[in-house]
Specification:
single chain, alpha/beta, Rossmann fold, six-stranded parallel β-sheet, about 50% helix, binds pyridoxal-5'-phosphate
Length: about 750
């Protein structure tokens, strides 16, 4: 494989060498893609007629497909040497853009599972939308987030358009065409495919709307049939916005179901066998409308009666829940649903009637019915029809049985299971952290690269020499990040500082606010001469806020304002640095994560379903400072309490906490009130909105996410991590234990679990 790749790449590069080229990066990207495609031709090709699983997801966050393929096929070093030999910059691939078809963890998980399925020889295809603009590119200007369109498609040479497989998708107000674009997802022994649907007719957006700095305007301009494959998550605060989202969901779900039925026809088997041929995993509720759509087709095109169609669909569908936040369990206005999807709506009604006839207890019926008080509840539909429903971490899978799906759980206990998320170590370790990967190779051999659990062995290599080497690897990664940060914005980052890293979408429940308030707390202590022996620390943040999410955008502004304040203060500068790295994406994550000394996982207990950023950071040797939430719990189980910094109220404690009033904390603690007051009268601007959200609330209760409650224990945990860090060998040993423990979080295992416990292909 290496030889084919090298030969083909050399040939491609010859066409580029000699003369200076415009758009060199893009051309190199195309050359590498072409060479990879030559390798793909030698692999066993996708067999449409053999049994498969399909992953339906509104989001995919794959990172550049080039790096994904290099990681899966282990061609990364071959690429670098060939580029170098031919006189090209071996680092060029790091500048290729990421397809921005996802928001955060949900989309990244989808990508990790596809990569791992290809690598471990499971026939799993992805189905989603070929968003023209995907998620925006984030820039910071005057401390605030601005949003720019991301034109990822120009950089991606992997896609193949398949007009012959186009399908019509019809809505109440007309019909569109769905045209598939296929991206090969390669492993050493198989090729799977990611199929993304483009809606036609489609016209580009007028970018003047963006230039005025308002992405919401551009969204609105697109509010018609042509917007369906325009943006990821257009704002849904208007009726048209909601209609558009429902159209997007039906668009890709219906097209994907049609495509699967076409593939199935190649098997020549009767339709009763459909469930043996295909398993469909619903990644959250977004693609749930695929269920009534399949039932409709089975009834109308294949002559099945409803009962039978439902039975077949039950064998096929299963549903992964990703959040217990009530606002994320999708509901549609029934009238809107009927207006947008008049052909599907009757089948939703039939499903609802079926459920109501099946369930005798009237109390249960109200909780679990699919249609209730004029709304269609997608999560209930997904749970009712699916044969399996899974949460994404142990605690989360328990929570869904106790809360959101409690009634379903009493009716169908065997339907519920847990499959903890995982990450592709090929990308997040082998590719992202060459130093640490070689460290492991030299001690335990290279088999862990295709079998991550073997990495657990590394924990025994804790001699002084081992630990010193581990520290020097981290130091090098930190220098590299500092160089990158300097080259991209001119910010100076001292690699001798401790790097404390919180990188993830900006959301109130993830509590970036807690982090930055605690930085302000340290700053006040320093000014008062109360901070003793603090090891200098860089607090590194990255993450995007949804364009319409005011408080999240205020948090970004606050982080940048605090950063500027500290920068101006000569004493503070010696101890703290706050750095917000713009435009968090897969590419940046691969640079930041290997350089982290501490992983900030601060979500209020019971709110983060799993998290995968926590796993990536742990795998790269950063102990966690975090709550007992999501997969943090499992990380600590494997890596040990002593090797991480756990703080904050537990979920069970929060459940008993009735009448929480942050005002009590504010009045009883000077340390807290001084910090919170800075939001109002700070030397860095007016953050009254955040101040009010902590103390008064509005639509939400005051301090909904218990920032003030957990502040003292967070500060203690932070200080104890800081103390430990001073003894670098002891800290390196904690780091080593975390690396070994993260061997449990391989997406290879996760996808094997999906196959063994749900799909059985
Ligand atoms: C891993 C990852 C996420 C998810 O991070 P969490 O901390 O689990 O929320 C989001 N975005 C990108 C680019 C990632 O790589």
């Amino acid at each position: 494989m290496k030889e084919i790749f090298q030969k083909s790449l050399e040939k491609q590069l010859e066409k580029l060498s000699g003369k200076p080229q415009k758009n060199m990066e893009r051309k190199l990207g195309r050359a590498i893609t072409a060479a990879l495609m030559d390798v793909f031709c030698t692999l066993p090709q996708r067999k449409a007629a053999s049994p498969r699983a399909a992953y339906f997801s509104a989001e995919f966050l794959p990172g550049s497909f080039i790096t994904g393929s290099l990681a899966n096929l282990d061609l990364h070093n071959t690429l670098k040497t060939t580029l170098r030999q031919k006189g090209f910059d071996p680092e060029c691939i790091e500048r290729l853009s990421d397809p921005a078809l996802g928001n955060g963890g949900l989309g990244r998980l989808a990508a990790c599972l596809l990569d791992s399925a290809a690598a471990t020889d499971i026939p799993l295809d992805g189905y989603g939308i070929r968003y023209r603009y995907g998620i925006f590119q984030q820039k910071i200007s005057g401390c605030e987030q601005t949003e720019r369109p991301d034109l990822w498609q120009e950089d991606c040479a992997f896609e193949k358009e398949h007009r012959d497989d186009a399908v019509k998708v019809s809505f109440g107000d007309g019909e569109v065409t769905a045209v598939p674009f296929d991206i090969p997802i390669a492993g050493k022994n198989r090729i799977n495919r990611l199929r993304l649907w483009q809606c036609e007719p489609c016209t580009p957006v007028d970018f003047n709307a963006f230039k005025n700095g308002d992405i919401c305007l551009a969204f609105k301009e697109q509010n018609n049939a042509e917007a369906i494959s325009g943006f990821l998550y257009p704002p849904d605060d208007t009726v048209e916005g909601k209609a558009l989202r429902l159209k997007q969901q039906y668009f890709f779900s219906a097209a994907s179901v049609a495509s699967i039925l076409k593939d199935f026809s190649k098997t020549g088997k009767p339709i009763n066998c459909l469930g043996e041929y295909i398993k469909i995993q619903l990644n959250d509720t977004h693609p749930t409308v695929a269920i009534p759509e399949l039932i409709r087709l089975l009834c109308e095109d294949y002559g099945k009666d409803f009962e039978n169609a439902l039975k077949i669909s039950g064998e096929i569908f299963s549903y992964t829940n990703h959040t217990v936040m009530a606002e994320a369990l999708e509901c549609w206005d029934e009238a809107l649903f009927c207006r947008i999807l008049p052909k599907v709506y009757p089948y939703v009604v039939m499903l609802n009637n079926h459920l109501r006839q099946n369930i005798k207890s009237s109390e249960l019926i109200n909780k679990i019915s699919i249609i209730k008080d004029g709304t269609v509840r997608m999560a209930n539909m997904a749970v009712y029809v699916s044969h399996k429903v899974n949460g994404v971490a142990k605690i989360h899978s328990e929570i869904i049985k106790e809360s959101v799906f409690k009634e379903f759980y009493t009716l169908y206990p065997q339907r519920f299971l847990n499959i903890t998320n995982g990450i592709s170590h090929r990308r997040w370790l082998c590719l992202a952290n060459n130093g640490l990967s070689s460290f492991a190779d030299a001690r335990i051999g290279t088999d862990w690269r295709d079998n991550l659990p073997l990495l657990d062995e590394i924990k025994n290599y804790n001699s002084v020499a081992d630990l010193d080497e581990l520290m020097s690897i981290k130091a090098k990664n930190k220098r590299q990040l500092a160089d990158y940060v300097k080259a991209n914005g001119g910010f100076l980052l001292d690699p001798d500082f401790m790097f404390s890293v919180q990188i993830k979408r900006i959301h109130e429940y993830k509590r970036q606010l807690l982090n930055i308030l605690a930085v302000l707390g340290l700053y006040i202590d320093l000014k008062n001469g109360e901070l003793k022996d603090f090891y200098p620390t860089a607090f590194i943040f990255a993450g995007k806020a949804a364009p319409g999410y005011y408080n999240a955008k205020q948090v970004i502004k606050l982080i940048n304002a605090v950063s500027a304040l500290l920068e101006k203060d000569e004493t503070a500068r010696k101890y703290f640095k706050v750095l917000f790295i713009p435009d968090y994406n897969v590419k940046n994550a691969m640079k930041i994560i290997p350089a982290a000394d501490l992983s900030e996982q601060l979500s209020t207990a019971g709110t983060e379903a799993s998290g995968t950023g926590n796993m990536k950071l742990s795998l790269n040797g950063a102990p966690t400072i975090g709550t007992l939430d999501g997969a943090n719990i499992e990380i600590v189980d494997y890596a040990g309490m002593d090797n991480n910094y756990i703080f904050g109220a537990k979920r069970s404690e929060l459940a008993c906490l009735t009448n929480y009033d942050p005002m009590d904390i504010y009045y009883s603690s000077d340390r807290i009130s001084r910090v919170v007051d800075l939001l109002k009268q700070g030397p860095f601007g007016d953050f009254t909105a955040l101040f009010n959200s902590l103390l008064f609330g509005s639509y939400d209760p005051a301090d909904r996410y218990k920032v003030l409650l957990d502040y003292p224990s967070y500060m203690n945990a932070r200080l104890s991590a800081n103390e430990d860090y001073k003894n670098s060998r002891i800290y390196a040993e904690k780091s080593l234990k975390n690396i070994a423990a993260a061997a449990h979080f391989s997406a290879d295992d996760t996808v094997q679990n999906y196959n063994n416990k749900i799909w059985n292909i």
